[in-house]
Amino acid sequence: MPTIDVHGTPVHYTTHGDGPGILFVHGTAADGESNWGHLRDHFTERHTVITPDYSGSGQTPLHADDLSLDELVEQVVGAARAATDESFDIVGFSLGAVVAAAAAAKYPELVRRLVVINGWARNDDPRQQLAVDLWRRLPDIDQEAFAAYSALLIFSPPFLAGFGSDGVKSTVAGIKAEIGTLRQIELDHRVDITDLLPLIGARTLVIGSSRDLLIPVEHSREIHRAVKDSEYAELESGHMAVFEKPAELVRLITEFLDRD
């Protein structure tokens, strides 16, 4: 896995395929491989797929007590610049959607097209504050409760129930409150890109999930309204649409990218 130094942080990333670049940005508590590895092959025939790990995820370390949105933007854009000399598309999921949108606003000359999946613009929604604040506080109280709450937040009820009792137990057991995850949740709780959204000039597709309990779909609809001339699509899925609706998600992204 190659590495690019971004302001003193070694940012790890992968590249696969050949052609115009697509930068895939992962969400909280994940990394490039866990969020996008199972979808990569759908894009590599015609594109160079770039999947960085930003600070606190995968092989990219934390270098400070707090994370900032600007820091993550510079890390993922730095990885894309290391992988291609040309402009590129960005697909971002969850916190990665926020990072991707901020990158498109900051670097309009680099970003051709933008896909935002289950993102949000602001955190002054009281319900959202309650949900994310509890998500962050639970690891300090009860690690098992944090894992169970996480599973309830990120998957739709029928999808999680479909795992069966043993599958649910196994899924919950695999959710850990690593220090990088905690720092990313803290960023989730305070990030605000309201002022950046009107600056996005790239052709944009916003995708929301109607059964998302972590980032309710109203947040995706708000992004769509704020980004001029953006397109909108909605999946019947929980927050983890990358796993609940992979085929539908790939279809939406490829159809959007294939249009001139």
How would you explain this protein's 3D organization?
The chain has a single domain, classed as Rossmann fold (3-Layer(aba) Sandwich), CATH 3.40.50. A hairpin with a 2-residue loop joins strand 1 (3-6) and strand 2 (9-17). The chain contains 11 helices and 8 strands. The chain is of the alpha/beta class and 260 residues long. The protein is globular. Strands 1-2-4-3-5-6-7-8 form an 8-stranded mixed β-sheet, with helices on both faces.
Question: What is the domain tally?
Answer: 1
**Percentage of residues in strands:** 15-25%
Shape: globular
**Which regions are unreliable across 5 or more consecutive residues at pLDDT < 50?**
none
Distance between the termini: 33 Å
| The CATH top-level class label | Alpha Beta
CATH topology: Rossmann fold
Query: What do the pLDDT scores average to?
Result: 96
CATH homologous superfamily identity: Alpha/Beta hydrolase fold, catalytic domain
CATH architecture term: 3-Layer(aba) Sandwich
Summarize the structure.
The protein has eleven helices and eight strands. By secondary structure, the protein is of the alpha/beta class.
